């Protein structure tokens, strides 16, 4: 391999390395698969997810090191580095980022204020990017790693010293995972991860030089041992005897030594396997995917979302197929377009007018970019300032829907919070019809106010079964993540379920502490009989619809004059409510003469005070009047309720 320095802008087109394309192909398939199964329940998929993350992003950093070149110390060398290596990546980052932000606005029905502020997040980059742009952290760390590694191989002559610096950089990157950046949990451009990537990229630089010189039989032996090691690691992780997590974007690395040793071993196994495939011939589809990993990296998350909004299924295997197929089709169409005479004529015309265009466009572009950058960054700073008004912690908040409801009711509560980076939706837990838990997502351990949404697939099992399911969820979170405390939010029958949980298990020392409880429109002492279609006509649950307007009243202590059976159930365990829990009771009054929110009377929901105020650390009530106080509208895009809930749970 030629190792001379590059001190000219002239480059020669080299023959593609087939096995490197194969490695990129398998790497991008792993990326798409990891994102496709991220929110799917199941032990097997959980193990698969983490096993993929042990190697797939380090693989791309190592491949990035294959084609690095030393630069001279003069102007031409630096021009090559910035003009030939960094500039194309920077253009791709902002161009594709802007396209995806606009797509996200329309397909996710986001506000323009949120969309405009997201351009500020695109400038800041790193972990602030999510949804369609969640993988864009890789592009910024990749650019930083290319810059630093190129300087390392160009200015440090001794190889051992290069690796010593890279290893030190790796150690620093690991150490920075728990350190904030001027008060922000997110480093700009995920710069701390670039410190790790320098080691992998430098390793790739030298692996590519030495790889052809290693005896094929020795490679096979290493691949065999490495594969057995991988299988052993998977077994240890599946049996809870290995705690190896390598989530680079969120800077979540449980063991520095494991992160240092394991990814290179697994990546070398992939390289050797790909060279073995090269011996068998050129597989055109695999090569095409390898050549177009960038477009798949950019657009597979959008492909997940856009297509599953319009089709009948959203299974993980469908997401893998569409996450690969849609960007590949886009890449194929772009290639076809670039082969047209129209494109070539436009390119020729652009080249002829290049100097004239640059004279005019360059100052305008620089000016607009500067204005846009200042505006976007100020928008991001304003958004960041908003989040600084809130306490950011690892304490999860569990949301529970009401009778005959679903996740949509809960997602409305957190829409503003997620857009302002106050909370992060990290997990969805389904309680199946056979009373099993299906867990989608995972708690990352980040100080991002994680939110857990609960969905009972049988959403008419009633408040007692709801409470029992919540108890199983809390126990699962304790066993799986060792959480110490949590917040609870419930609407309607979900509110009753949380109160029931508090009476029965809230003071259990073996369970996490119930920190804050926000309950909305809770029917603690009856529901108005409105004859709704989803209202049970017989059975034990039918007895809950036993209230009428103006029938009941509360004494000065909040005790209801008429006590229904469901209230008596809570009253019997009144003295078991946890003493350290803060309670916010939100209720509505339509002011239409019924003294109710249309379904639950004010007297029924305010009867909670008598049940918990003597034991709770604090008890507050918040009334919403008029149309916004209607039973369902309390949780559907209700800014008054959302602001109150957000301030109460996470405000300083």
Describe the fold and architecture:
The structure is a single chain. By secondary structure, the chain is α/β, with parallel strands linked by helices. It is built from 22 helices and ten strands. The chain has helices spanning 18-36, 43-53, 56-66, 75-107, 112-124, 137-155, 159-175, 191-210, 216-238, 256-280, 284-291, 293-308, 316-338, 341-352, 354-388, 407-419, 463-481, 493-505, 565-571, 602-606, 608-612, 639-650; strands spanning 246-247, 252-253, 397-400, 424-431, 437-441, 450-456, 485-491, 513-520, 582-589, 618-625. The strands form two sheets. Strands 5-4-6-3-7-8-9-10 form an eight-stranded mixed sheet, sandwiched between helices. Strand 1 (246-247) and strand 2 (252-253) form a beta hairpin. Helix 1 packs parallel to helix 12 and helix 4 packs parallel to helix 12. The longest helix has 35 residues, at 354-388. It is elongated, with a radius of gyration of 29 Å. The N and C termini lie far apart (60 Å). Residues 1-12 have low confidence and may be disordered.
Topology record:
Layout: H1 18-36, H2 43-53, H3 56-66, H4 75-107, H5 112-124, H6 137-155, H7 159-175, H8 191-210, H9 216-238, E1 246-247, E2 252-253, H10 256-280, H11 284-291, H12 293-308, H13 316-338, H14 341-352, H15 354-388, E3 397-400, H16 407-419, E4 424-431, E5 437-441, E6 450-456, H17 463-481, E7 485-491, H18 493-505, E8 513-520, H19 565-571, E9 582-589, H20 602-606, H21 608-612, E10 618-625, H22 639-650
Parallel strand pairs: 3-6, 3-7, 4-6, 7-8, 8-9, 9-10
Antiparallel strand pairs: 1-2, 4-5
Domain Acyltransferase: 18-334
Protein name: Alpha/beta hydrolase
Transmembrane segments: 17-37, 52-68, 89-107, 135-156, 163-185, 191-208, 220-238, 316-337
